[in-house]
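# nightly structure sweep
# worker-07 picked up a monomer target from the shared queue
# config: single-sequence mode, recycle default, output format = structure tokens
# input follows
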Amino acid sequence: MMENSIPYVSLAVGAAVTAAMAPKVKARIELSRAKHRSLAGHSKMSRRISKLIPRYEFDIDDFFCSDGAPPAIATQRQDGFFQLGALFQDRFAKSRALTAEAASRISDLQFTQSYRVPFQYSRLVKEQLGAGSFMQSSSGVTITDLDGNQFYDLTGSYGVNIFGYDFYKECIAAAERRAQALGPVLGLYHPVVADNVKRLTELSGMDEVSFHMSGTEAVMQAVRLARYHTGRSHLVRFAGAYHGWWGDVQPGVGNPIAPHETYTLAEMSERTLHILRTRRDIACVLVNPLQALHPNGNAPGDSALVDSSRKGRYDRAAYTAWLKQLREVCTTSGIVLLFDEVFLGFRLAPGGAQEYFGVKADMVTYGKSLGGGLPIGVVCGRKELMRRFRDDRPADICFARGTFNSHPYVMTAMDEFLSRLDSPNFRAIYDGLDDTWNGRAAQLNAELSKRDLPVRVSNMQSIWLVEYTAPSRYNWMLQFYLRAEGLALSWVGTGRFIFSLNYTDADFAEVTKRFVAAAGKMKQDGWWWNDGKLTNKAIKRQILKEMLGAVVRR
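# output follows
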């Protein structure tokens, strides 16, 4: 009788285990479905794939016809390429020489020089079109290199430069005079800190402030505080969003060790909202409002520009609606909503993205421009989230310090920045910004269309993304034609333009003229050849074949 009962007992145990596991399996499936379908939404998969991609490069015979272009077009491209190379070597000689010398000892330069273009083309481009990384002066909306070449600046100093370099020079010079008496006294506060805190709480709508040494560090502390006060382990970031280079917010390519307390989910997705409603291990949700320009897409750079599928999809109304939904769900679920405005802060509006989109966060991080041109990171948050200790448990603390937090020179530069921002005359700069920059983007697009050039721009106010309307493997070449026309780009090339708000109509007209000229010369040199059969899918298939061939040859 006992022997006969054993199968029934086993079945019962199995059924009980299955019933116990079912909710966990269901939750796991829902979490997977909330991820974006791209590699940006699948961190583990992106890391695995990145390790499998083989290194290969085109020699001189294949470099100019990797898209199947006929010999005549390849020759046309080759002639244009080496003519451009000769121009670079002549016009930018001093800056190129110093860059080459410094690169042997500066690892940052080694990285940026190797990742300006798709790796298959990198060696020859670096040899012929190596860009100088040294500048000697700035004025208005221009910068000047070591050879005396003046460029219109489209880099925005990675977001720092909102109001123009002269503005920040004034902030720094005034700060130096005001902080000189105290000097670099660390650990104690310059009196100006009190004024900064008052203004920051008013601008952010928050209760308290903490100062840090960088935007990355500010985000680290905000997340740590959210975990401390909620007692929960995980943070949610959205596919493609950048929040600094520390481990928990960079779970994919670039991080040697995968974090275990990070969920990378799809932005603007109902499935993501479902996860936020149902899971109880989520401490905070990080939002980088810059992602409104390319939701769920990685930060664009020409090193990944293998075809013409890159697009901007900015829709202010749709993104505002998403943030409002997110705000509601976070409130209901007890999740901290954290706006990372290190990049965008004070660019869209005096009150940042909170004011621009009309959504209140629980915590906000700032950096870059707020320091008046000097490095800074700031966390602003609700009183109950900013506290780093518990009155009833004295050993239970949330530690954070930094040697250069509240440096007197940075604090006085910040006060100079905030004082200007607070003046009514200065705030008038924000009037009609959307109309101004949308109109300028439309103006440039009209000129490009008129000349039948396969380039367009999309924008989120003064932050622009370059798109390409015809399939091509060589779009990344445009960055070098733009430099030849006197337009300065950051190392990501045409992936992102950042204009300072002091651009006049006359300044922008000159940028338009130079941009159109650069695109025209690139077309003339044959880089946008297309036989009608070349598609983005065909390009990707060809690259896959090349990679498989490289693996086989090994």
